[in-house]
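stuck on this fold:
=====
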Amino acid sequence: MEGMKKRYFLRTGAAIVGAAALFRFWPSQATDSADSTGLNEQMASEPKGADADGEFEVTKTVAEWRKVLTPEEFAVLREHHTERPHSSPLNKLSAVGTYVCAGCRQPLYSSEAKFDSGTGWPSFYAALDNAVGTSVDKSFLMTRTEVHCDRCGGHLGHIFDDGPAPTGKRHCINGVALKFVAA
């Protein structure tokens, strides 16, 4: 009987820890929070693209961002959430044009650099010049390169080293963080 109690306790504890971890990192609707600054504790280093004071060209209060963004856009761009894979209509889009930031409309990616990575998110092998910045993201028990809009600091996604030539990079971008402008 003692062994059963111990196993039950361990399994229950593991389930609670696992559920808490999933809740922390699972995408959800944006929620009101006093510390939603857009550049939160997930970013372990000074984001490249910000000026010396850590400010971006386009800055807004949390309330102002909520007025101009949908709840899904706010969750991704300002709170670093991730949309569900295969949920963006931009994922399979193959039209010629430019992908711009959903927050500030800065041009970010050319359709010429887009490719089907099979991951479920729009993917690009390179950004437009002076369009994105990067920072170290140590969330979700791993270290990744976060990519954000160089103009407003909005979280776009992550960059991985498994992309095609000529860069070998895969900018794995949340479709909700982008708007498409046809050529």
About this structure: DSSP finds three helices and nine strands in the chain. The two ends are 71 Å apart (CA to CA).
